[in-house]
Amino acid sequence: MHRAHMRAALDEARLALDEGEVPVGAAVVCGGEIIALAHNERETGDDPTAHAEVLAIRRAAVRLGRRRLEGCTLYVTLEPCPMCAGAIVMAGLDAVYYGAADEKAGCAGSVYALPEDPAFGKRIPCHGGLMETACREILERFFEERRR
User: Fold this and answer.
1) Taking every pair of C-alpha atoms in the chain, what is the biggest distance, in angstroms?
2) Tens place of pLDDT for every residue, the chain, 148 residues?
3) DSSP-derived 3-state class of residue 11
4) What is the CA angle 123-126-130, rounded to 5?
5) Number of H helices, E strands in the chain
6) Is 53 a residue of the active site?
7) Cβ(83)–Cβ(51) below 8 Å
8) How much is the pTM?
9) Interacting residues of 55 by C-beta distance below 8 A, sequence separation 6+
10) Which entry of 21, 53, 79, 116 is annotated as an active-site residue?
């Protein structure tokens, strides 16, 4: 189940790659069903906040007709940054599963575990390493091509 949801997020990351975006994809799952998918759109939309996680959370809220996403889980190919971790907290998701850790800016366990900090109310468990190799490889390929 978790792998199928992460595969959907990876498919979104591949769409981002095709568009010249940093290849990060996300899926929001509710009741075992994927209710929202997104990938980074920062470059194509000239929007610094158009991270995959934020876009997927927005789409899930619209689909459910509510701003609180209790009962929902986020799957994302890269560990959420501080902005995305804040959006996760504000949405009240039940859990987060991510693929590749982000040792420089990851706020779901690497640098800081913002969603799990009890100071923000509900503790949202974050689980890293789901299909980590596939998630890391697509990012590494993108950045290798950029350096050429």
Assistant:
1) 45
2) 999 999 999 999 999 999 999 999 999 999 999 999 999 999 999 999 999 999 999 999 999 999 999 999 999 999 999 999 999 999 999 999 999 999 999 999 999 999 999 999 999 999 999 999 999 999 999 999 888 8
3) helix
4) 165
5) 5, 5
6) yes
7) yes
8) 0.97
9) 26, 38, 39, 41
10) 53
